[in-house]
Structures are given as structure tokens and as C-alpha cells.
Design a protein that fits this description.
It is built from 17 helices and 17 strands. Helix 1 crosses helix 3, helix 2 packs across helix 3 and helix 14 runs parallel beside helix 16. Helix content is 44%, strand content 14%. It has three domains: 68 residues, Arc Repressor Mutant, subunit A (Orthogonal Bundle); 141 residues, Aspartate Aminotransferase, domain 1 (Alpha-Beta Complex), CATH 3.90.1150; 239 residues, Type I PLP-dependent aspartate aminotransferase-like (Major domain) (Aspartate Aminotransferase, domain 2), CATH 3.40.640.10. The N and C termini lie far apart (68 Å). A hairpin with a 2-residue loop joins strand 7 and strand 8. A seven-stranded mixed beta sheet has the order 4-12-11-10-9-5-6, sandwiched between helices. Strands 13-14-17-16 form a four-stranded antiparallel beta sheet, with helices on one face. Strands 1-2 form a two-stranded antiparallel ribbon.
């Protein structure tokens, strides 16, 4: 089999980016540049591993990820080749699913046909950045649940365990975080919780005393804000822009107040969808060191990145004792499957575990063991990559519809990550009236004002899209257009 004479991949081992991700990114770049065309054979995993001096398993992991994303195909006894069904992820030019892809993902087609029959009588909910739980591989999940239940019962393991969570799940999540997100944590640095909100509340409960100052961005997660308030925190508001939190404004607050903690969502800011720039991340970490405050990093949407650019968490930037990293697997599977985690210094984790013990003694043992099995076998990774393709399709569709149908009334910030979009609304449109009229047309929209602690009016709305199939998205955007047209006479008079 004729293969490329040379596949040059420069590995930067101190970059903080997992090596298999660096390999994958280089191959994608080569495909997009036209260097490799459909059908080109790639070097065998052993050959490439020897060439770039890495473990063969690292190359296998890179190839597997590219195969799952559709960039490569593997043929038994022949090798690995550039796929003819390449996705132009880098620019968001996602082609429509063809018949062959529909066979690969039959559930999407089934869901669409069912919904087409009944959706006309149901509302369209744009309010939340939720995954589509109809895409869950139920048979896979039920097998893992059954296996966890039977194994635990037979081995007399359905008893009280470690409040930090089952060891096997902590190990599986740590492997994911250290390999894919550049963390440098060990088993003493992680505690399993029931979703990211529980992690945020535990951080507030353990770190905050009544009267302590906690800084949040002016528009931020209202549930996080309420969690800090419930622990007696004095909330300070920090400006933010298209690069993330305004570190100059934050330092002015640090000079004026003794800040105990800063809460941020750097990967996909809630609600603006902005990804915090690398320079802002470094400045924020430097301020934490200088003024001795904790950074509570809510990274629960990290999995949904629609570009080849890797934005690693704050917790990966340095071995800092100032970052409390909170994440979740709930959006990969379903919000109803409550699996989250906190990564922090050992002493802080022990305090978290103490409070978990007081709240519910421990987590859901069967659920934890089942999810651990799916992580170890790679099933969750495959499910994630599969749904990511589908969400890319839906994101491309809703962006196209907004541009073609709503551009007279709104402009959209094209976020690189996350399951929701931010839409700036024409200043002549009354957003409050828009929301009320939308309810009458059976569509639900989140006003951005809901994310303001002071209930400031913001001329914007937020649309979640991933949990809606193609029919639902088209129906929802058409209804939204009809609602906007109601205010059109005022727009023309302005």
C-alpha cells in the first residue's frame, strides 16, 4: 500500500495540550490545506509513533478520535485513510447528512419523523443550552446500569462508600481531564458530586463565610450567584467584554475589597457565549496569586467545541492552589444523570467530602459504576463525538436560518463552543414585548436580563439549539420571525 513518504508532526510537550490532540490537529490542518486528499493512506500507528517518538497508544487515540469525527476511515487489513466525507469543522461549513450518514445515525432520523407528526401542537423551547436526551444510546446505558447493579449486589458493594465518590469513576474522570484537558491532578484532588451546581454550592459552602466578597461578571449564572448569596457572600460585579472578564476592573475591586473568590465560566461564558482569551486567563491567574483569592472555574460545557482550536481550562495553566475546577458529564448524556466533579487541592477536597457526607452520605453508587464502565470502554467518548457532529449540523442550520430569516431584526455572535447562541436585538424592538408575544406563539425564549443581578435591561436574547431537531429548529425560527414581524411597523417608523 502506497503511503505518504513523510508525515511531519511537531510535538510541543510543554504546551499543556494533550499530545494526541496535537497529532489530530496537525492531520486536520493537512487535510484542510489540501495536502492530503480523500483516500490518502496514513502511516501505520507504530510507524508514526516511532517517527515522532511517542507511545503507539497515543497515535491510536489520535486516529480513533479523527475516525469518530469523520476525518479518517479505517479498513480492516488495509489501513487508515483520509475520508471522503470530511467535515469542514474549522469554518462551520457542515454539510447536510446524506443517506449514508443517516444510516450511521438512524436515531436522528427516527426522532425527526416522530416529532414531525406531533410538534405542530407543542411549544418550541429555546430557553436552555441542553443536550438532546433522545440521542442517548439507551441500550448501552441500560447494559452498563444492569452490570453495575448485578456486580455490586453479588459482591455486597451496595453499601456506604467513600463520600468523594467511587474510586473507579474518579480514576476514569481524572484520566479524561489529565489527557484531554491538560490537568495535572491525582486521585486526592477529585470529588464526585451530583452535577456542576452541587459543585458550585459546595465551593461556596466550604470557602465562603458570611460577609466575604465574591466577584462575578455583570452578566453571569444566576444559580451560581444565588449559591454564593445563600452562604452570606457580598456579591461584587465585574465588567466583561468579547475577551472575557475585565481584569483591569477586577484589579480595581481587589484594591478596594478583600475578595475571597471569583466565579467564571471561561470556556463558554454564561450567558454571552464568549470564550475567555489566553491573555485574560493568564492575567486572571496572576491576580489570584497576587491578591490571594480562589478562582471557581465552572467548566461544565467544555465538551462542546466546534473548532479545531483547543481552549484548555484555567486549571491546566499552572499548578495553582487557587483554582477550584467544577465540571459535569450530565450534558454529554442527560441532565437527569447527575454526574459532576470538583478538582481542587487535597485539603479542600477533604472538606468537600465532609459536606457531601452531611448532605447525602455518598452518591449514587450504581450510577457511578455504570458511568465509570462507559468511560473506561470509550463508549462515552464515542457517544460524545457522535452527538457533537449532530449538534454541529444543528448549529450550522440555526445560524443559516438566523442570517436568512432574522437578520433584519437580530445579529448573532458566532460562538466557537457551547449549545446556545447570543442574539443582539435591534434597539427598536421591545424585548419584553417580544418575549410575551413569543409565548403566545408557543415558543420560549430567555431574555438576557435574567442573567443580570440588578435586572438591567439587555437588548439581547439567548437561544439554545442542541436539544431541537431540524424540524423543531425550522419551526421555532419561523415562529420567532412571525413574532418579530409584529413589531415591524414600529421598526419602519423609527
Amino acid at each position: 500500500m502506497l503511503r505518504p513518504w513523510e508525515l511531519s508532526i511537531d510535538i510541543v510537550r510543554e504546551s499543556g495540550i494533550a499530545i494526541h490532540l496535537q497529532i489530530a490537529k496537525k492531520i486536520i490542518a493537512a487535510i484542510q490545506s489540501g495536502r492530503f486528499t480523500a483516500g490518502t493512506a496514513l502511516p501505520g500507528t507504530r510507524i508514526l509513533a516511532n517517527r515522532i517518538n511517542v507511545n503507539r497508544k497515543t497515535v491510536i487515540q489520535a486516529y480513533d478520535e479523527l475516525i469518530a469525527q469523520g476525518w479518517l476511515i479505517s479498513e480492516s487489513k488495509r489501513g487508515t485513510f483520509i475520508s471522503s466525507r470530511m467535515l469542514a469543522i474549522n469554518h462551520g461549513n457542515i454539510p447536510a447528512l446524506n443517506n449514508q450518514q443517516n444510516q450511521i445515525y438512524p436515531l436522528l432520523k427516527d426522532v425527526t419523523s416522530i416529532q414531525n407528526k406531533r410538534q405542530a401542537h407543542h411549544g418550541i423551547n429555546f430557553t436552555a443550552d441542553l443536550p438532546d436526551t433522545r440521542l442517548i444510546p439507551f441500550e448501552m446505558l441500560s447494559r452498563a446500569m444492569r452490570h453495575a447493579l448485578i456486580t455490586s449486589a453479588r459482591n455486597n458493594k451496595l453499601i456506604y462508600g467513600d463520600p468523594k465518590g467511587s474510586l473507579i469513576l474518579r480514576q476514569a474522570i481524572l484520566q479524561m481531564l489529565n489527557i484531554e484537558r491538560g490537568l495535572h491532578a491525582n486521585i486526592e484532588n477529585i470529588c464526585i458530586v451530583r452535577g456542576s451546581q452541587m459543585g458550585i454550592f459546595l465551593a461556596a459552602k466550604v470557602l465562603i463565610e458570611s460577609g466575604d466578597c465574591v466577584a462575578l461578571e455583570e452578566l453571569s449564572n444566576p444559580l451560581a450567584r444565588d449559591a454564593f448569596k445563600s452562604c452570606g457572600a457580598h456579591i461584587l460585579h465585574v465588567a466583561h467584554d468579547d475577551e472575557g472578564i475585565d481584569v483591569v476592573n477586577l484589579e480595581l475591586l481587589c484594591i478596594q475589597y478583600k475578595i475571597r473568590a471569583v466565579y467564571v465560566t471561561p470556556h463558554h461564558q454564561i450567558p454571552t457565549t464568549v470564550t475567555m482569551s489566553l491573555s485574560r486567563r493568564k492575567q486572571l491567574l496572576a491576580l489570584a496569586e497576587q491578591y490571594n483569592f480562589f478562582i471557581i472555574e465552572d467548566d461544565s460545557g467544555h465538551e462542546f467545541n466546534f473548532t479545531t482550536e483547543v481552549a484548555l481550562p484555567l486549571a491546566s495553566e499552572q499548578a495553582s492552589n487557587h483554582v477550584i475546577h467544577v465540571g459535569s458529564l450530565s450534558k454529554i448524556l442527560a441532565p437527569g444523570l447527575r454526574i459532576g466533579y470538583i478538582v481542587a487541592p487535597k485539603e479542600t477536597i477533604n472538606r468537600f467530602a465532609h459536606h457531601v457526607n452531611l448532605i447525602d452520605r455518598q452518591g449514587d453508587m450504581v450510577n457511578e459504576l455504570a458511568i465509570a464502565e462507559l468511560l473506561h470502554t470509550g463508549e462515552i467518548k464515542r457517544h460524545h463525538l457522535r452527538t457533537l457532529k449532530i449538534y454541529q449540523e444543528r448549529r450550522a442550520l440555526i445560524l443559516e436560518l438566523i442570517l436568512n430569516e432574522l437578520s433584519e431584526f437580530v445579529s448573532c455572535k458566532k460562538a466557537n463552543s457551547g449549545l446556545s447562541l447570543w442574539l443582539d436585538v435591534n434597539p427598536t424592538i421591545n424585548v419584553e414585548v417580544l418575549i410575551q408575544n413569543a409565548i403566545a406563539e408557543k415558543i420560549s425564549i430567555t431574555p438576557v436580563s435574567d442573567f443580570s443581578a440588578k435586572n438591567h435591561k439587555v437588548q439581547a436574547i439567548r437561544l439554545g439549539f442542541a436539544h431541537l431537531n431540524e424540524y423543531e429548529i425550522r419551526t421555532g425560527i419561523q415562529r420567532l420571525k412571525d413574532v418579530l414581524l409584529i413589531q415591524r411597523p414600529k421598526l419602519l417608523q423609527a
